[in-house]
Design a protein that fits this description.
Blueprint (H helix, E strand, L loop, with lengths): L1 H42 L3 H10 L3 H12 L4 H23 L8 H7 L5 H9 L6 H25 L5 H7 L2 H16 L1 H19 L8 H19 L11
Helix pairs in contact: 1-2, 1-3, 1-7, 1-9, 2-7, 3-4, 4-6, 4-11, 6-9, 9-10, 10-11
């Protein structure tokens, strides 16, 4: 009985830790999705259609690109290719995160919770010390999912009430949120700091250099991520601790 109580307490604590770590992401998503709700309704969608889009997706860049294609009467192929390119980085994130989850994080949980892998959720989960449990990751995604959907609904229904300059300012919240996630880890670890600056340098080159600046933003993120992470694995390999046999 005592062991069962300890197990329940551990599960509850893991879930609550996930909710706590995801609270800042949820607040950031609330403001960004509010902007999406406004943009979706002002283009081609009704308020409930905008809400359904966010309910079935969790990708800000992909959703904004999607409503742009809808508004311009684009083809299904155009939509499919754009979404594939923009969201391909999530596949790399999922592969990386799958190496950090615990043994109880089965494929069923991966199938369900894989829906919620985003840049910010991935960064928080990966920066956590130790393994990532299914309960922790479930808690981590609760507030971001609520924030994303409620923000979209509020923006779609109430967006016309707010002044335009305030709506534009809300779109900057996600960048500040991501910086707040990355900076503490960069300050603590010199190796990560080097890799982050290298990734920034690569992104700068892909954005400004002739011949490279025409690469889409989705591919640019993938290229910079793969090269920077590959350089980090080569320069700073993680030494596995050998088990001490008694």
């Amino acid at each position: 009985m005592g062991l069962q109580k300890e197990n329940h307490a551990y599960i509850r604590n893991e879930f609550l830790k996930g909710i706590r770590d995801g609270s800042a992401i949820g607040i950031g998503y609330l403001s960004v999705s509010f902007t999406f709700g406004i943009a979706a309704v002002s283009s081609v969608l009704n308020w409930w259609q905008a809400f359904v889009v966010s309910l079935m997706n969790l990708t800000s860049a992909g959703q904004f690109a999607g409503i742009t294609i809808m508004a311009s009467l684009g083809t299904y192929i155009e939509m499919a290719v754009s979404q594939f390119v923009i969201n391909l980085r999530y596949a790399l994130m999922s592969i990386s995160l799958s190496q950090k989850v615990d043994r109880d994080f089965g494929w069923q949980k991966k199938m369900i919770l894989g829906f919620a892998v985003t840049d910010e959720i991935f960064a928080v989960a990966l920066s956590r010390k130790g393994e990532v449990s299914g309960r922790y990751f479930a808690g981590l995604t609760v507030l971001p999912l609520l924030g994303w959907n409620l923000g979209t609904l509020a923006g779609a229904v109430l967006g016309d009430i707010l002044p335009e300059n305030l709506v534009s300012a809300l779109g900057l919240a996600i960048y500040g949120m991501f910086i707040a996630i990355v900076v503490p880890v960069v300050k603590e670890n010199k190796k990560i700091r080097i890799i982050v600056f290298f990734a920034v340098f690569l992104s700068f080159c892909l954005y400004y250099l002739p011949g490279l600046k025409n690469i889409s933003s989705g591919f640019a993120i993938i290229i910079a991520s793969v090269i920077a992470s590959g350089a980090g694995a080569w320069l700073f390999p993680v030494e596995e601790e050998e088990e001490v046999k008694g």
